[in-house]
Amino acid sequence: MSDHTPVFYETLLVGMIHTDTRGSCFTYDESWLSRTGSFQISLTMPLGRPAVEHHVIMPWLANLLPEGDAISTIARRSGIATGDILSLLMVVGRDTAGALSIGQPRSREGRHYMTIAGQDALERLIEDLPRRPLLSGDDGVSMSLPGAQEKLPVVLNDNDIALPLNGAPSTHIIKPNNRRLPGSVQNEALCMVLARRVGLDVADVTTGQAGKRSYLLVERYDRIQRGGVWRRLHQEDFCQALSLPPASKYQHNRTGILGPGLADLFRTVRTFMTARDTIRLLDAVIFNVLITNVDSHAKNYSIMLTGRARLSPLYDLMAGDAWSEVTQNLPQDIGGKNRGQYINHLHWRRMAEESGLSAGAVVRRVIQMATALPSMLDQAVD
C-alpha cells in the first residue's frame, strides 16, 4: 500500500511524495518540468533527477517544521507523533519557508486574510503562542516556520497586521520578546541594522509594541509583490541543501551526525553560486563572530532558488554575549576554535585554507570589518 502527498507552488502541482513500507521518495510532475519558470526545490533535487530518495527528501521536509517545544505541542494538539513529518506538514504546511505548500494548494476561494483587531488582540495572540505555536488548529490557519523560537507569520496590509488563511502567503514574521533573554528584540534589531550599515545584505526589520509585549517585525525576503498580489520566492537553508536533519544544524552536536562546518558551507557556495556569494558568506561569517552570534548555525544561512542560486539575505542576528547564561561556543569552528576570545589570525588563516579561500585576503577582511564596526555602532543605535 502506498500513500501520495502532493507538493504545490501556489495552485500548480510541483511533484508528489510517494510513501510505502520502504520509505518515501519524491518525483517532479511532468507538467512542472515542462513549465517555463519552474525551479528546483533543492540543490540536491535538480529538475532532471528522476526520483529523490528517502534519505534526501525526508531531512529536507523535516527542516520546514518548527523545533523543540513548538513541534511537540503541535504534534500533541493534532494527535500526531512528532516523528511523523508528512502528517505534521499536512497540518501546518500550506505556508512554509520558501515557495511550496505541502498537501494542499493555495485556495482561490474564501477569505485569504483575517485582520488582527488592534494591539490588544495581537498581544493575546502572542501570549497564546506557547500553547498554540503558529496558531495551529485555528480554522484556515496552516503555517510553518523552522526554529525553536516563538514566531508568528503575518501579513502587513497598509500598516494593518493580519493572519494569512487558506494557504495565502505571509509577508512578515513577528518575533516576540523572549522573557528568558531580556532585550532580545532590541538586541536583534540593533545587530540587523549594524549589519546593513557595514554593507551586508539583511532582511528589513522594525520593532513594535503590543501591550506589554515588544516584538521584532521581519519582512520576508522570500515574498514579493507583483501586480498587487503577494507571490512566493523559493529558498532552502543549508541543512536542507546538505541533506541534514535540523538537529544537526550545529557543527558539534550529539545526534551522531556531524553538522556542517564552514568548509561545507563554502564548498556548497563554490559549487552552485558565484564568487560574489563566496565573499558575501565570508563577510557574514566574520560579522557573526565579531558580534558573538552564537546561533549562526547552518539553518540560519539560506539559499534563494528562484532563478540562479544565490545566498539569501541574512536574518536571526543577535549578540549572544549580552546574556551570561547563553553559551559562548560558536556554531562552527574557526580553524579548530569555537570561542571568539581564543581566535586569532592563525585560526582565520587555517579556516581559509580548509575552505579553499585566500588566507591573506580573509585576515585582511577580518581586520577591515573589526575596525569598521565600532565606528558604525553609534549610527546603528540611532
TrEMBL record:
* Pfam families in the record: Couple_hipA, HipA_C
- Chain ranges of the HipA N-terminal subdomain domain: 7-102
Superkingdom in the source lineage: Bacteria
Keyword terms: Kinase, Plasmid, Transferase
Q: Which CDD domains match?
A: HipA (cd17793)
Q: Where is the HipA-like C-terminal domain?
A: 143-373
Q: Hey, which family's this protein in?
A: Belongs to the HipA Ser/Thr kinase family.
- Write down what this protein is called: HipA domain protein
